[in-house]
Amino acid sequence: MKLAVVGATGMVGTVLLQVLEERNFPISELLLVASERSVGKTILFKGASHSIVSMQSAIAAKPDIAIFSAGGNTSLEYAPKFAEAGTTVIDNSSAWRMDPDKKLVVPEINASLLTTSDKIIANPNCSTIQLVMALAPLHRKYQAKRVVVSTYQSVSGTGVKAVQQMENEMAGISGPMAYPYPIHKNALPHCDVFEANGFTKEEMKLAREPQKILDDRSFSVTATAVRIPTAGGHSESVNVEFRTDFDLSEVRQLLHDTPGVVVQDNPDTNTYPMPIYAHHKDDVFVGRIRRDETQPNTLHLWIVSDNLRKGAATNAVQIAEYLVEKKLV
Ligand code: A2P
């Protein structure tokens, strides 16, 4: 398997290489791509030094799979060029997610849609992935009608500059700002840019992507996305109104039986998901499972996951593993 990682020096790219190494993804040749200014620099993978190569030389090498984490504009420009060369692209940016001709894949939910003709496959937004991982089994059983999400998102989702801003502020050092305000000791109700309807782009990703992944427009999602000064993962307060009633112990069992989901829920022992425990893990953690007593058929959940792992790198590698296993590349 000839594999290219585009954006190998970035936050997601770095975690991608760790995940590929940990999961022992079969690689015969690894092409690491970053911007022109990084070409020639080296990165260690499985103890061996790999030089960063240019986009053009990676395309010319015709890899079987290219995993992109280099921003939307880079994906828009270069993913089609890899695809023309016969490469299957798995793209972490938002560039192709809502394109009706591209599949938006969380392997545990809809990998079976993939065929050999899917040459650009979209990886969903990090906040979306952890939401749908918990929502999918419950939706199948009780049919979600309306989902209200409030997020508490890690600065690592913004990139290196944001993590640096937080660390500088914690140390009392001034430096470049990734956000319009300080993030240390703060909460910013502002993830990604604002759209014309007053929602942010992050909030609209949460509204649009779950319907596409679950292939169902019979439910709606509305969101408020907030950046908080954590680095380990995103947290979500989720309120779901279902069309049919549920039994709480059955809800717990359904979540418990879902691969990739871990239930952490025991008020007696103060057990609930938190970013400090989700950090560096691949699972989606769910707790604070309780009935909303203000209206029928309505459930509260608290969902936490490492946004760079299942929210980005791990999900992309799982897609690649599926392509290999099913001989789709
Ligand atoms: P570089 O390190 O050379 O800038 P992050 O989202 O964490 O900032 O990472 C972005 C990643 O995308 C980095 O690896 C960055 O490389 C890479 N990148 C940015 N622009 C391009 C480009 N035009 N072509 C290839 N890689 C790019």
What is the gist of this entry?
The chain is of the alpha/beta class.
Strand and helix layout:
Blueprint: E1 2-6, H1 11-22, E2 29-33, E3 42-45, E4 48-53, H2 55-60, E5 65-68, H3 72-84, E6 88-91, H4 107-110, E7 120-122, H5 126-142, E8 144-153, H6 160-171, H7 201-213, E9 220-227, E10 234-242, H8 248-256, E11 261-263, H9 275-278, E12 284-291, E13 298-305, H10 309-325
Parallel strand pairs: 1-2, 1-5, 2-4, 5-6, 6-7, 8-9, 11-12
Antiparallel strand pairs: 3-4, 8-10, 10-13, 12-13
Adenosine-2'-5'-diphosphate binds next to helix 1.
Give a verbal description of the structure:
The protein is α/β, with parallel strands linked by helices. It has 2 domains: 2-124 and 312-325, Rossmann fold; 127-307, 2-Layer Sandwich (Dihydrodipicolinate Reductase, domain 2), CATH 3.30.360.10. The protein is built from 10 helices and 13 strands. It has helices at residues 11-22, 55-60, 72-84, 107-110, 126-142, 160-171, 201-213, 248-256, 275-278, 309-325, and strands at residues 2-6, 29-33, 42-45, 48-53, 65-68, 88-91, 120-122, 144-153, 220-227, 234-242, 261-263, 284-291, 298-305. The strands form 2 sheets. Strands 3-4-2-1-5-6-7 form a 7-stranded mixed β-sheet, sandwiched between helices. Strands 9-8-10-13-12-11 form a 6-stranded mixed β-sheet. The longest helix is centred in the middle third of the chain and has 17 residues, at 126-142. 45% of the residues are buried. Bound molecules: adenosine-2'-5'-diphosphate. Adenosine-2'-5'-diphosphate binds next to helix 1.
